[in-house]
Specification:
CATH architecture: 3-Layer(aba) Sandwich
Low-confidence stretches: 228-240
Strand order of the largest sheet: 1-3-6-7-2-8-11-9-10
Mean pLDDT: 87
Amino acid sequence: MTKIILKKEIPQNSIIIEGFPSRGFVSTIATKYMIDELGMEVYGYMESERVDSIAVVHNYTPMHPIRIYAKNNLVLIFSELVVPIHHIKEFSGELIRWFEEIKPKQVILLAGISGLTTEKEHEIMGVSTNPELDKKLEELKVKRIEEGILTGISSELLLGCIEKKIPALSLMAETHYTPDPLAAASMVNILSGVLGIKIDTKNLIEEGKKIEEMYKEISEQIKHGKNGYTEISEFSPMYG
């Protein structure tokens, strides 16, 4: 019902980053930005009878909504489709099966979370499955989660990685807006440290500041009885 189709071979011992939609579209914005900045190529896609037939169009080209990008030893799973909650186990099960096949060095899962009050805005929090990744979180000053509940496809993949003994790291960005490019920029900065590569987030930060200013302006308009909701639709949740 659900399967991964590859057009090019993925090397073993790669680092896989998962970017299914999450709160604030943080994961999808972050992964799309990295794809563009690093010049990554489409290596394959995921298809399933469990979701409606959807084709997305980018640069005049029709594409599958869940695509697999790669460059060297870095692999990104980028989705413009929200997996229905009752099909999460099937999608995550197929991905874990694929992980077992290609034997990744580590899997990094991305998500946005809201409703938290932290010392700094757009703080990144994390949880990992082994001491080496715990040490990396400490080096990057990422706040480790001591107690909590994780949900969605990222949490299902995390459990699958634990079961199959695949090193995994889950990163979550504090988010307040939808879309939230500033939270995504914070995520990309941490990913740069985890991966040991430089990714300039200047453009993402500039876009995020524009959106936050718009939200603040609309909030003020609402307080004064004006309707400004439609203005947000000018911004696509998929940055790039």
